[in-house]
Amino acid sequence: MLLALGGLCGLSVSAQAACSVGTTTPAAFGLVGSMAVKNTLQSTSTLNSGLSCVGTGITLFGTSMFKATITSATSGMVGPTGDVIGYTIYATNATTYPISRGAPGFDFASNGLLSLLGLIGSASPKYIPLYLSTITGSNVAAGVYTETLNIQWDWYYCPGIGIGGICIGANSGSKSTPLTVTLTVANDCTISALNISFGSAPVISAFTPVTSQTISLSCTKGSAYTVGLSDGAQAVSVGGRRQMISGSNFLAYDIFKSAGTTRWGSVGSARRASSDAEINPGNGLGVGSQVFNFNAKIYTDQATPPAGTYIDNVVLDVGF
């Protein structure tokens, strides 16, 4: 009797590789000042966007696909006042291969991305990461900004090909999973202030006051804040006068609010509120400036000290 053994002769089947979709790892930008959000790209990532595969049996043929379709009910991360921070999603950390929201599935099987991300040949489950980068120009209030993305994963591949190109043990699936993206915006300011120069004079009585001076601040949209000026490096302990120093000699002076005679200080009512600005009073604008006027003078009720260059350092602080 002759027995004919055939049909599977020469068939090579790779080890079975399984893919599945599970819970994602949230992507968090962390705590970022509002000015940095507006002016500088912020980056973050999630190393788990839901789809994981054991890659030892993945061989990419013409019909293979690992597609992600990303959608959301919003156009970016939304904050407590309704402001939105936009961002772009990328397939790699080099900010290449952007993934458009709502567009047909982005295929990680193309452009060698699965190999680049280390999925091909991995003996243990490997997750597909996503990379995110903010879009500059967002003028937003402080608070927590959040968006929930829906990621629809669709995949298909053959662990092995039989005689006649027939797929053996195809692995395929389709499942969606949510991904949370967050960024916390902190109150922040940019400050523009020139040094105060009294010039030179032979005697105390010859110094003229410095007038029409300004400090400009651009602070977080919607923020109420106060501005303080420290007492300098060597203030008089009694009477609170600021003093410039040259060697061991002192020259008393002070800084006053607006064009008046009320001393501008660093505590309590000596500070200035954002609502007290001469230009654009009120809460912070985020863009544009709020301007505070001040004047400064050297006290004339002191003896003229020895000649020299007198210097002091005053710290400006903003409190929210």
Automatic annotation (TrEMBL):
Signal peptide extent: 1-17
Keyword Nuclease: no
Top-level taxon in the UniProt lineage: Bacteria
Keyword Membrane: no
Entry protein name: Spore coat U domain-containing protein
A Pfam entry, by short name: SCPU
Domain Spore coat protein U/FanG: 11-151, 178-315
Keywords, in A-Z order: Signal
Coiled-coil positions: none
Annotated TM spans: none
The organism's taxonomic lineage, starting at the top: Bacteria, Pseudomonadati, Pseudomonadota, Gammaproteobacteria, Pseudomonadales
